[in-house]
Design goal:
By secondary structure, this protein is α+β, with helices and mostly antiparallel strands. 33% of the residues lie in helices and 29% in strands.
């Protein structure tokens, strides 16, 4: 039996635990991040039951939640009438063929299916990606953001350039979770990330800072430009229809912005200033931009 509860916390540990190059599921979000489960048997079951081959130990997962079946060399994802459903690439799955790169969501865990001639290479690339990417939203994570900010801070200081920051979070996030559940919350986070991502230029970075909080760093952007950009983001989110499993959920954000000034001694001071302005926006009535 494969035990899915072990949490591997370092890239080196993950790589050393990897097996040989067979079709596999890799945990890219949730407990046991980076764990690789090779699909060696014709039927591999996932669920909360300790007797399943891949144990996903969380309340939102059914005891026998789903399985991966092999027919004529093809892998199929099959839901086992689970309570909260099995998702393939964000769509409810009943019995769906798996192809390389597919994302399988069970409870709060997301697995990536890897197949093909260079699985080991793909696996190691995936491990690197996990160190700089948020598994749920598929945008850069806080680690990547901080590294990028340090580089841009040094460049802005050296050449006297503008550097701006936008921080925002989703209003009443806990209430949405209580009213609609974690699957809806995950959908909103992913949908919002894709909405904003389309407005961010190649030279800028948009990252999930933590929980429901997001950050955007904008080089060469002045005080007027960052305020206008933030207001555009606010309006896009407010006007978007977030609809999941028949429920329409109104979503708004509070936004704080900041501009690099000589009093900021470290890169993180720029983020702290934007974060303080975010909370000013909340105190001023929410769903607004403060600078």
């Amino acid at each position: 039996m494969v035990e899915a509860k072990t949490l591997i916390t370092t890239v080196r540990g993950i790589v050393e635990s990897a097996g040989t190059g067979n079709e596999c599921l890799v945990v890219i979000y949730g407990a046991s991040l980076g764990r690789k489960f090779e699909l060696l048997d014709d039927v591999v079951t996932l669920g909360r039951d300790p007797e399943t081959q891949i144990v996903v130990d969380m309340d939102s997962v059914s005891r026998r939640h789903a399985r991966v079946e092999t027919y004529d060399g093809v892998k199929w994802l099959v839901d086992l009438n689970s309570t909260n459903g099995t998702y393939l690439n964000d769509k409810l799955a009943v019995r769906e063929r798996l192809t390389n790169g597919d994302l399988v969501k069970i409870g709060d865990s997301i697995f990536k299916f890897l197949a093909g001639a260079n699985i080991e290479s793909a696996y190691h690339e995936e491990i690197y990606t996990m160190t700089v990417t948020d598994g749920l939203t598929q945008i850069p994570n806080k680690r990547y953001l901080v590294e990028y900010l340090e580089r841009e801070y040094s460049r802005a200081r050296r050449y006297g350039r503008n550097l701006s920051c936008v921080m925002f979070d989703i209003e009443h996030f806990k209430r949405i979770n209580d009213d609609f559940g974690h699957l809806t919350v995950d959908f909103i986070l992913k949908e919002l990330a894709q909405l904003v991502r389309r407005r961010v230029r190649r030279e800028e970075v948009f990252a999930r800072y933590g929980g429901e909080e997001f950050c955007i760093v904008l080089p060469e952007c002045d005080a007027v430009g960052v305020r206008e950009f933030a207001e555009t983001i606010r309006k896009i989110i407010e006007s978007h229809l977030f609809e999941f499993e028949g429920n329409r959920i109104p979503v708004t954000v509070s936004i704080g912005v900041s501009l690099l000034d000589p009093a900021m001694a470290t890169p993180i001071d720029l983020v702290k200033c934007a974060d303080e302005n975010l909370y000013r926006a909340k105190r001023a009535g929410r769903n607004r931009v403060c600078a």
